[in-house]
Every structure is written in C-alpha cells, then in structure tokens.
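Before relying on records like the one below, remember that each one covers exactly one chain. Contacts with other chains, cofactors or solvent are not represented anywhere in the record.
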Amino acid sequence: MLDYLKSYYSYGEYEEIVEHMRFACGEAGGDAGTAEGAAVYYLFFVRRDAESRTLAQKWKEQGWPGLNNDERIMMESRLNCRATVIEIEKILDRQRMECIDLLDIERGSFI
C-alpha cells in the first residue's frame, strides 16, 4: 500500500499532509501514528485528482497490483465505507427502528 502511495506522492508531499493532520496541542510526537494513519487514509480515500478520482479508485482500476486476495477484498470494503450519523425517528418493535442518516437526509428514512 505504501509503495503504491509513494508512486504518486513524494515524501515531502506526504510529510506536509502528516503535519496538517497533527493535533494542535499536546505532547510533541505523541500523535505521530494517528497523524500518519490519517494522512494515508486522506491520500487514498479523500483527496481527488483533476478527474475527481481518489488514489484508491485509480488503484482499483489497475486491478490492485501488489496486493494479495485478502488485501484486495479489504480495499474494496474500505472503498464502500463512509461515515454516517444515524438518528432514530421511531421505534417499530423490539428489533426494528425507522432511522435517517443525518449526513444524507435526501436518502430518506430506512428501517
């Protein structure tokens, strides 16, 4: 994964993103792992190129070179994940609730 990242971004570009992801206060270097992980996630799944594609989407289009089958499945799953904030609108019974996604209200309610 990191080899693929390095084929698109220089170390300087990566370090700039890591610095941007660091917490504004706290123990120096104490958030290094968090900042590095956030930077890798951002560069693969959030930042888009001029064609509005993420690095992960480009890698998928190439067939995930360098990954084994388990790693390919993991990357496919990560591509389909997104943050959500669910609000329960109505409790229907002991197992079902009518909800809305506050980050995607246009989707409407779902059970």
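The mean pLDDT is 88.
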